[in-house]
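Lab manual, section 2.4: Encoding a predicted structure.

Procedure: take the sequence of the chain (238 residues), apply the prediction step described in section 2.3, and record the output as structure tokens. A sample record is shown.
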Amino acid sequence: TRSKRRRRFSMASTLPEGSELNGKTKSEYAYDYIKRKIIDADYKPGGKITIRKVAMKLNMSDIPVREALGRLESEGFVTSVPHAGYRLCTLNDKSVVEKLVIKAELEILALGLAANNVPVSAYPEIDAVIEKLKQAERDRQFLSCYKYVREYSLMIYSYCRNDELYRLLKALFYETGAVSRIYELMPAWDRFSVSAHAGIWESIKQGDKATAVAALKDVKHRSIAQVREALRDQGSPI
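Recorded output:
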């Protein structure tokens, strides 16, 4: 009927200009939009996400945005604040630190499984990410350092030949994104981390799996120690 056509047109026209639902519900569209903003560090750890502002940005009602944020909360990306909307998880969230410990052990396992499986054909792409990582450190683009560490790491772990392990790691990388703040809080850690990860990749290319795994274990355990130190400096007991 004509009224149904009007409703369908109204739904489609509420999206930002140039965008489409592509078969997604509005809640799914809002979820993808907010999650991408988090991953790209457009939303900062600890920063507020206001339902009404996001809804206005996406030209939709509050309901799908609230549903999207509820889903993101269940995944550990955001925390609800009574009478104030949502905020991104920060280093002060106990669950983030606990997930960081789990992620470290899973990363060590994944690297051990993947190190000998990375094809030479993948080297140029990973090399390019490592160069971006080094340049970000030189430019003091701290959040970008975390992004590139995550990117190159997941590229390597994708060859672990264990789909469930890889899925868990992808989720944990994004759910512990707040730890990117240690790059800003501790520039000395930033330099060490970038150098260590570049060294891990060189060991993999040389076929030295044992050295790569040992180096990753060291950097991950140091990373957890750095996060705890940062928390102590902020007066957190975690």
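Check your result against the sample. The chain is about 70% helix and 5% strand.
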